[in-house]
Amino acid sequence: MQLYPSPALAPYILHYLILEHHMVGPSWHRFFPDGHPGIGFHYGDAFQQQDFLSKTPLKHPESFIYGQVNHHFDLISGAKIGMLIVVFKPFGLSGFMKMPAKLFANQTLALSEIFPKSAPGLTDQVLSAGDHGKRISAIESFLLNQLAHNPHNVKLVAACTNKIESADKPLSVRSLASDLAVTERSLERAFDQHIGISPKLYSRIARLQRYLKLRKTSPDMPLTALGYEAGYYDQAHFIKDFADLAGITPSQYDLSTNRLAVNLMQIAGSSII
Q1: Model-level pTM?
Q2: DSSP H helical ranges for 180-249
Q3: Nearest-5° Cα angle at 228, 222 to 234
Q4: Which of 8, 35, 57, 75 is buried most, with the most CB atoms less than 10 Å from its CB?
Q5: Taking the CB of residue 242, how many other CB atoms lie within 10 A of it?
Q6: Contact 93, 104 (CB under 8 A)
Q7: Rounded CA gap, 232 and 225, in Å?
Q8: Domain 2-148 belongs to what topology?
């Protein structure tokens, strides 16, 4: 379920995502990049996170913050999934932070590590709330207070991500910089500060997400045709890029019918590749 932010936070937040599900027991789920950082709250059983770079799962704290990711990893759920996620726009999290977004790339941290004074109280409010409206109200009060102390200018990265997402073919950093009347280095610095990954990597992730949206709206189209429509040059490039980011092939993705989100799908045991 998706719920939408108040007008004051709409420039920064894409939506609130509610994940709820009851499982027979622990289950494995594949998560892969979607271009959005977030803040999460577990009011059900907390997930364990297993990165393919580390074989030891780490348990999520009750409230956590995560930056942009450039690779897939697996999440192990308990029997009761209950989670509220603040899904930020690609640059949205930087509006509430005093540190460059690049420092949060591939990081999942306890919210209290970033906001040691206010996170414990917010977490208690969210976890003890009786409904999603009260949870979101507490979160928005917290975020609006943070926003007042962290003025940021995100016009450049907002314009750039819009260009990338609306383009029907990959755009080079050079052409993006030229269109926006800035240097390539200035654009890359802005991405480091406000998004956390490079324009080139963001473009790859956006292209994958474009494919998934097309797949949802045009389920009868052949994979190859969808790949071309999403901006891939050929089938081999499409399959390789999909596997690099998601850790599975497009056909394997299609076989999964149990998805908590477009980039969070149940898998059979540990199938990290």
Answers
A1: 0.93
A2: 184-194, 199-217, 223-230, 235-246
A3: 100
A4: 35
A5: 25
A6: yes
A7: 10
A8: Jelly Rolls (2.60.120)
**CB neighbours (10 Å) of residue 102?**
18
Burial of 7 (0-12, 13-18, 19+ CB in 10 A): exposed
Q: For residue 81, what are the β-bridge partners? A: 21
Backbone angles phi, psi at 243, to 5 degrees: -65, -35
CB 99 within 8 A of CB 29: no
Tokens found for residue 189: 């610095």
Q: Is 184 helix (H, G, I), strand (E, B) or coil?
A: helix
pLDDT tens-place values along the chain, 273 residues long: 999 999 999 999 999 999 998 877 889 999 999 999 999 999 999 999 998 777 788 999 999 999 999 999 999 999 999 999 999 999 999 999 989 999 999 999 999 999 999 999 999 999 999 899 999 999 999 999 998 676 678 899 999 999 999 988 889 999 999 999 999 999 999 999 999 999 999 999 999 999 999 998 998 888 889 999 999 988 999 999 999 999 999 989 988 888 999 999 998 765 444
Q: Cα-flanking dihedrals φ and ψ of residue 82, to 5°?
A: -150, 105
* H or E stretch at 39: strand 38-42
